[in-house]
Recover the amino acids of this structure.
């Protein structure tokens, strides 16, 4: 994993550790929703790509949440 | 233009709701019970002569000038200390009163230098005015008797002088220091003829406990305490009411001028945030505005190792636009972004985010609130539905229990702290939760009932433990929860906090505080009639910052401490416009009014008005921008009024990010640390040079008014307009009021805000709209904005930043009274007298183990980097904890802090860094190299003479 992927994994797990203990609603959906709402497309694309390669380091609920993320097309050009 | 004169009613206003009618000089007047006769006379426009009375302090009754006669009562009572009574008939001018007053004035003047023509207060002296008011024409006693007119001046304070020869010992300064500021630095020393005002233990002012708030100078009726700027320049001839550009209190000031020269800043009594008080920064530390290091011409360079070249505005703006266009063409639309400033106005931050979203075509916009109060926005919105504090500052006057957590108000929010201290002296109880023994824990006439010196990083755990005690001991306000909160969420939360791992006993061991203290704090907070929470960056700047904010919201909801004056959850915002910059849509995921960018209806509204399609995806936050820059996908940035290199964590990482970008544009007053990596420098304007608004920590929108022409030629908002036009996204505004009109049209919480309204009523607190045309001082009355209050589970998750054998101590960082954030402004004022360098506070036990003596250079080392500072040995910090400030680039405290951040918002974890401290010979190699690089980078090429 690159440094930046390591960091994204850590950040995603942090999010997971907040939502997993919540008792209202579904934690995996909440994690996915947070990533959709607050992560830039390139960050989401990177974590999706990492999860697709096995998602090393991702906590289980986070890995499940990342799987639910919509495919991100980083429209990097004008 | 003329001076803004404020009426001095002589004594404070009475808050009684009972009314009393009396007659003064034959005129009937009705006033609140408890009002002094003096104030009642002023209500009908009659000025009773006075010297020792002023309405910022309680009546004292010493000068014997304000005497009146009351029908049916013997003698001549002082009108300042005599309250009104129903049916009372008062005479303010009789032969007897005239003779007494003239006699009193003769005595005063017989011991006063007669140098009025050359006195700094000539024309602005109450003694002079009173001599005229009583018709004094002669002093029968002569001037040769024993007197005080040859006493030496104390000029030690950099901002004001104390000339005891002009002192009439009215005690106004002493009382202002006690009652308004709450420092108790001044006293009357000696008795009778030997009575004199003394600072501290009869020390020079600068060596005493005096905090230079200026309350004494403002209260002085003579030239005894005078601003040095008035002595140097002369008395001002006109003034303009504006808002301080330092902390989030947002004090109103009169900028008193001669022409375009600022003479002094005087706190405005009608300012609803500060109520006529000030601190050393707002009152005196404005000299940076004309400091010789201020850059006034745009500059460019191709690479950062070149010297700067001064160019015209046209060339500089064209360079910005062409470079940003080039980067987007080469690397893609998402390759650039911008940062709005919490030091700039609402209108300016709004324009920067508009430029990024509409002109750059992406949402890569963020603000320095990212690194301070972003968890507040997320946490309070989740709990209550609004990303802001719940109260106004006046609310503290009705608090019975005050819980201060992770905030040091006497240093960081001193004017609000004075109001809080006043309430505490009146008997409110205090809980302090902070790793350091901050001043509030024990100071004159104030002592916290509970101080929980918790281990840095354990806020969420301790707050859960407090909640545990509240639930376990049946202290929940069941009625409030039932009526206003989501029942299921409450039940889940109550079950969670009741779990054994959240008990005070379990948490206390881990957090380093006693279970008894946790339970005591819980009982006190829950049992207060009105309990209010005030918090700062010691809550937010953690990996669980947002969790802790939610935990505070949970406590307030569970105990019913919301929805009325005296209670609430109150974030103390760091910079002057942190609240405003957040409100204006500076975060990458949301538009103004905290509406998510993915919301089609909201986005469409903006698209229609701006004439551009907007991206529905969130953009990069500041730390993400740095990561993307290092990864090679983020290539250009426009930074308005923020020094990200000095203020953001892990300086080496920020350096690497900036160095990786191809176009860094810095807009600032000075060549700050970020500018060392910039390719274009756009000189900014000060708050004195532009119109606009700031929104303070209590959601109060205050006017900023231009008092002088921008020395750099353009206000900051005009610079952004120029960039936008060059980028092909022209915005047309003739005045910032038009920008506010657009904001009001697009933002429901600002719908009623206009400059016309602000000029008419002074200030308003949002929401200000049809439902609340004059704003909303207290929120969530009768229910929450989101509907039912939302209890979230706030499980404690320890930070990944851990101590160990290599880094056994925990570093936490903060601020000091005399300096402001990265110090760009305050380091360029005489405030350096009080704080010339950052120091490291270390407990005697830890110092002894390392052989460190007070004042020694020490190496401060973490996993991220190392720096060197001088040590200050103190037991303000607990063993195992060290503390420093981040005001000086020579120290670069953030070279040590890490990139760990809040789970929800990426707010950096400044407050917890595992470090080691060891002896050092002086600055580190990195500091020396950094200083050399900075000096090299700041070279400005000399322009050849034509």
């Amino acid at each position: 994993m690159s440094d930046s992927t390591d960091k994204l994994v850590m950040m995603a797990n942090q999010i997971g550790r907040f939502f997993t203990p919540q008792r209202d609603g579904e934690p995996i959906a909440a994690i996915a929703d947070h990533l959709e709402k607050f992560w830039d497309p390139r960050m989401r694309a990177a974590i999706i790509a990492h999860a697709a390669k096995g998602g090393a380091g991702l906590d289980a609920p986070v890995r499940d949440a990342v799987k639910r993320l919509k495919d991100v097309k980083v429209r990097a050009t004008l | 233009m003329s001076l803004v004169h404020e009426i001095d009613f002589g004594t404070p206003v009475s808050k009684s709701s009972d009314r009393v009618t009396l007659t003064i000089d034959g005129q009937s007047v009705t006033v609140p019970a408890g009002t002094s006769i003096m104030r009642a006379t002023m209500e009908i426009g009659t000025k009773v002569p006075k010297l020792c009375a002023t309405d910022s302090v309680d009546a004292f009754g010493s000068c014997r000038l304000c005497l009146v006669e009351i029908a049916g009562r013997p003698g001549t009572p002082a009108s300042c200390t005599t309250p009104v009574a129903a049916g009372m008939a008062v005479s303010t001018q009789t032969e007897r009163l005239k003779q007494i007053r003239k006699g009193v004035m003769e005595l005063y003047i017989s011991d006063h230098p007669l140098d009025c023509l050359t006195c700094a207060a000539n024309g602005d002296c109450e003694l002079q005015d009173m001599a005229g008011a009583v018709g004094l024409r002669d002093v029968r006693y002569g001037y040769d008797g024993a007197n005080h007119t040859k006493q030496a001046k104390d000029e030690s304070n950099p901002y004001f002088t104390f000339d005891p020869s002009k002192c009439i010992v009215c005690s106004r300064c002493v009382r202002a220091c006690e009652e308004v500021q709450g420092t108790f630095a001044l006293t009357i020393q000696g008795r009778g003829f030997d009575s004199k005002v003394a600072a501290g233990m009869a020390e020079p002012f600068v060596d005493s406990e005096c905090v230079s708030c200026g309350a004494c100078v403002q209260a002085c009726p003579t030239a005894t305490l005078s601003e040095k700027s008035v002595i140097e320049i002369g008395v001002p001839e006109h003034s303009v009411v504006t808002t301080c550009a330092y902390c989030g209190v947002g004090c109103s000031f009169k900028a008193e001028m001669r022409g375009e020269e600022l003479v002094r800043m005087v706190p405005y009594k009608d300012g609803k945030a500060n109520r006529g008080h000030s601190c050393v920064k707002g009152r005196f530390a404005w000299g940076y505005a004309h400091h010789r290091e201020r850059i006034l011409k745009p500059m460019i360079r191709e690479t950062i190792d070149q010297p700067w070249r001064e160019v015209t505005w046209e060339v500089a703006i064209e360079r910005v636009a062409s470079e940003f266009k080039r980067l987007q063409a080469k690397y893609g639309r998402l390759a650039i972004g911008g940062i709005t400033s919490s030091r700039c106005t609402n209108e300016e931050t709004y324009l920067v985010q508009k430029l990024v979203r509409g002109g750059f075509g992406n949402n890569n916009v963020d603000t320095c609130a990212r690194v301070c109060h972003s968890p507040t926005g997320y946490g309070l919105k989740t709990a209550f539905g609004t990303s802001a504090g719940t109260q106004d500052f006046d609310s503290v006057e009705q608090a019975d229990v005050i819980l201060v957590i992770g905030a040091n108000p006497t240093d960081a929010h001193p004017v609000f702290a004075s109001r809080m201290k006043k309430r505490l002296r009146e008997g409110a109880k205090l809980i302090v939760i902070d790793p350091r023994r901050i001043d509030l824990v024990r100071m004159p006439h104030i002592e916290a009932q509970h101080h929980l010196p918790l281990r840095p990083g354990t806020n969420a755990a301790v707050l859960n433990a407090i909640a545990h005690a509240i639930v376990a001991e049946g202290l929940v306000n069941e009625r409030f929860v039932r009526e206003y909160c989501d029942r299921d969420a409450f039940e889940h939360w109550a079950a969670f906090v009741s779990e054994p791992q959240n008990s005070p006993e379990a948490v206390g061991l881990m957090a380093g505080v006693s279970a008894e203290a946790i339970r005591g704090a819980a009982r006190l907070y829950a049992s207060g009639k009105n309990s209010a929470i005030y918090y700062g960056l010691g809550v937010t700047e953690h990996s669980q910052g947002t969790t802790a904010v939610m935990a505070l919201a949970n406590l307030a909801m569970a105990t019913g401490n919301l929805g009325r004056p005296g209670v609430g959850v109150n974030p103390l915002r760091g910079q002057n416009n942190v609240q405003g910059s957040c409100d204006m849509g500076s975060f990458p995921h949301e538009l103004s009014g905290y509406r998510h960018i993915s919301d089609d209806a909201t986005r469409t509204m903006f698209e229609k008005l701006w004439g551009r399609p907007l991206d529905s995806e969130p953009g990069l936050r500041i730390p993400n921008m740095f990561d993307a820059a290092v990864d090679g996908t983020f290539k250009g940035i426009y930074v308005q009024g923020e020094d990200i290199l000095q203020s953001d964590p892990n300086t080496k990482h920020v350096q690497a990010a900036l160095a990786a970008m191809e176009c860094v544009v810095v807009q600032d007053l000075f060549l700050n640390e970020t500018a060392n990596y910039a390719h274009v420098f756009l000189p900014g304007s000060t708050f004195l040079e532009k119109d606009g608004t700031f929104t303070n920590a209590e959601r109060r929108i205050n006017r900023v008014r231009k008092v002088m022409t921008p020395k750099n030629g353009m206000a900051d908002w005009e610079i952004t307009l120029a960039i936008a036009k060059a980028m092909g996204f022209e915005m047309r505004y003739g005045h910032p009021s038009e920008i506010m009109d657009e904001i009001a049209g697009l933002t429901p919480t600002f719908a009623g805000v206009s400059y016309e309204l602000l000029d008419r009523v002074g200030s308003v607190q949002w929401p200000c709209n049809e439902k609340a045309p004059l704003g909303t001082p207290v929120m969530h009355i009768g229910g929450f904005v989101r509907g039912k209050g939302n209890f979230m589970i706030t499980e404690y998750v320890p930070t990944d930043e851990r101590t160990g054998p290599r880094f056994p101590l925990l570093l936490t960082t903060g601020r000091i009274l005399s300096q402001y954030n990265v110090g760009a402004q305050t380091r360029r004022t005489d405030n350096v007298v009080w704080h010339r360098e950052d120091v490291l506070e270390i407990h005697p036990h830890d110092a002894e183990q390392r052989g460190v003596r007070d004042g020694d250079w020490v190496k401060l080392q973490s996993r991220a980097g190392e720096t060197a500072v001088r040590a200050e040995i103190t037991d303000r910090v607990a063993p195992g904890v060290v503390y420093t400030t981040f005001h000086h680039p020579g120290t670069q405290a953030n070279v040590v802090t890490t990139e760990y951040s809040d789970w929800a918002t990426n707010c950096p974890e400044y407050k917890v860094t595992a470090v080691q401290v060891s002896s050092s010979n002086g600055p580190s190699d990195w500091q020396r190299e950094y200083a050399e690089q900075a000096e090299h980078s700041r070279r400005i090429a000399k322009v050849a003479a034509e």
Q: What stands out?
A: The CA atoms of residues 621 and 736 of chain B lie 27 Å apart. Chain B has a mean pLDDT of 96.
